[in-house]
Each structure stands twice: as C-alpha cells, then as structure tokens.
Automatic annotation (TrEMBL):
Signal peptide: none annotated. PROSITE patterns: SAM_MT_RSMB_NOP. S-adenosyl-L-methionine binds at D234, D282. This is RNA methyltransferase. Residues 112-392 form the SAM-dependent MTase RsmB/NOP-type domain.
Amino acid sequence: MTPAARVQAAIELLDEILAAARTAGPAADTVITRWFKTRRYAGSKDRRAVRELVYRAIRRSGEIPASGRAALLGVAEEEPELRTLFDGSPHAPAPVGEGEATAPAAVAPHWLNDLFDPVVEPGTRAALLARAPLDLRVNRLRGSRDEAHAALPEATPSPLSPIGLRMPEGFRIEDSEAWLSGLVEVQDEGSQLLALACEARPGLTVVDLCAGAGGKTLALAAEMANQRRLVASDADRGRLSRMAPRLQRAGVTNVETRLLNPGCERDALADLRSGADIVLVDAPCSGTGTWRRNPETRWRLTPDRLARLVTLQAHLLDVAAELVRPGGFLVYAVCSLLRQEGRDQAERFSDRSSLVPSPLAMAAGIAAGTGRILSPAQDGTDGFFVARWQAPC
Ligand SMILES: C[S@@+](CC[C@H](N)C(=O)[O-])C[C@H]1O[C@@H](n2cnc3c(N)ncnc32)[C@H](O)[C@@H]1O
C-alpha cells in the first residue's frame, strides 16, 4: 500500500469505529482485526502503519469526531506531511477542501472535564492517553520475581510493585515459556498494587465480588498461597468462564466461582453472610482510568450510563458490606478517575454504613477523601480509586 492508501484505509476504518461507538457495536480492536481479515493485500507493515494512524486519531479526539476524515485531518494539522497525502490520486483521500472541518484536539469529552477528581489536575491529563507499558505480575505460586526476571532478561523490575516486571514495547509475552508456564501474568502495575492492598493471606476467606475473568482473583490466590477459600463471583457468565483456563495455567486451586443474578446477588452469596475476612469490590465503572489502553471508550460513555454505573457501584458496596465478618475488611476499587465513582461514592458509603474507613497499605498514589488515587500521570499506572473499610468487631 502507498502511504496515501494507508491514510485512506485509516479513514475508512475510523468511520467503522465511529459507527460502532455510536451504536454500542464492537470495540476498535475488533473492528480493526475484522477489517484486515477481508483485505489480504495489506501486509504486516501496512497493518501496523494503518493501526498506528487510527489510534493516533482516536487518542487525539476527546469528543467523538464527525467522521474518520475529520479525525485524520486533525492529526494532519500536527503533521503537515500527512496533509500532503490527501492528493486525490488513486486509493488516496480526496484533496482537502477550503475550510474543511477537522476534529478538535482534546483529552476528554467536554462534559467530563469538571467531573475528574481534583487530584487529577488538568495539566497532567494528557498522561491519561499515553501509551501503557506492558506490565507483568509474577505469580508467586510458580516462582519468585528473580526467577521470572532470569527467565525474561529483557524485563526490568516495575518501579512500584514488588511482584512486577516491565517489558519492552512490542514484546510478545504470550509466546514465552514464562507466560505459558504461568510464572507471569499480564497485569497493569496499578492492578497489582490494588490486589496487594487487599492484604489477602493464607488462612483467610476472601470474596472477589466482581471478579470478571479473574485478573485480581489470580493475584489474590497467589497472596493466599492457594490456601483456604477464595470465592470469585460475577454477573457475566462469559467473563467468569474465561477464568478457568487462567486459573489452571497459574496453578490456582482455591477458587470457587459463582455466577450472580444482577439485582439478586445476595441469593447466591447467602452462605457467606458475615463470613468473609476480605471482600474486594472491583466495580464496573466508566473506565476513565484505562483510556491509555481503550481510548475510544471516551466516546461511548454518556451521562446516563455514568449515572447507572454510580447506582450499581453503591448497590454492590451494600451487598459486599453484608459479607464482611466482624473485624474483616471491604476494599472498593474502580478504574476511574471521576469523583462520583471514587471519593464521593466512598463518602456516601461511609455515611450510610456501619463499616469504618481504614487506611490502605499502599505507598503509591495520592490521598483522595478516604481513599487513594493511582494515576497514569503520578504513578505511571492505569488510573484507579481505591478505598478500604473495616467492619466493627
Ligand atoms: C472492573 S470489572 C472487574 C475486573 C476484574 N476484577 C479483573 O481484575 O479482571 C467489573 C466487573 O463487574 C461485573 N459486574 C457487573 N455487574 C455486576 C453485578 N451486579 N454483580 C457482580 N458483578 C458485576 C462485570 O461483569 C465486570 O466483570
């Protein structure tokens, strides 16, 4: 493909990604993979170049752009050479018209600007869209960080997590023996810190209420050295079912999964009432802390959806509180940097609950109300809000 044809391909792909974002269709990555499946003429270099252009355009557009062409013309404003490729030659985009609209550059959609937690200062928000590093968590059920480092000499120890390794960009970790044998798992450093902050250990009963496909479950099981009971529940059957092969690869044997019926979560968890030493609520959220990985989710969030998420988070906190034994802990986390989902949610819970805020064992992050915020700008991790409470004895 010529450079101009790559630009035209990126425009067409962006149009499909925009349509998918407007109709709750597939994620950008899925759209890109499907698109290339039917265009065998595109070689690996073409694919890489087109993908890179598409993601640059997505990252640059805080608001959903009017069209793929407007999005790429926005990128071309910062790179005049790209603009010269809009020349109308075969397979190239049409020449740029007089006064033709370009997508404005912004980190966040306008309506979200005032909703960030105050510790996420506007001057640092560009970091929310930087490229995320490839972080690994060492699975202590399979070996130590030194052993994993010896198996992956390209790695460097993560700056914050004592069980983390950071890989060079583009490293194909899933082809490595260390990954195949379960010695390492791909996990953002922030998620690792959050799992460690739960202080799970052998002999405890732990509930991972919103376990999804088990990212934090695996980390909790390792901290528990596979001993005693770890209940991993979720309302999404598909996600829960993806956990089993991960557990097996990691050598995890103490996990019991439970499918929850949304709104009736208490029914499936009745036997655990006041029985858990630790309950983690890694709640569904806006994902504003993970824009580095999924920048196009900025276009999918609406005020309505955010309000529904805030209501669901409050409900899950109430469900979780009932499972904590006297003296036990509840940990709440969201990969969000929005105040409503973080410090305000925590404050409202503290006001209505008998559980008492309890400081987190976490050296990283910045205090945000009763919790802490990890952010791409300050900590180089995905963005999270985390808070902890203890049930009175
Ligand atoms: C942030 S994700 C969890 C990620 C997971 N803990 C991990 O580390 O990979 C939030 C999860 O909450 C689940 N969820 C949504 N509604 C729920 C409900 N009513 N009860 C339990 N889980 C729910 C979603 O299916 C999703 O898997």
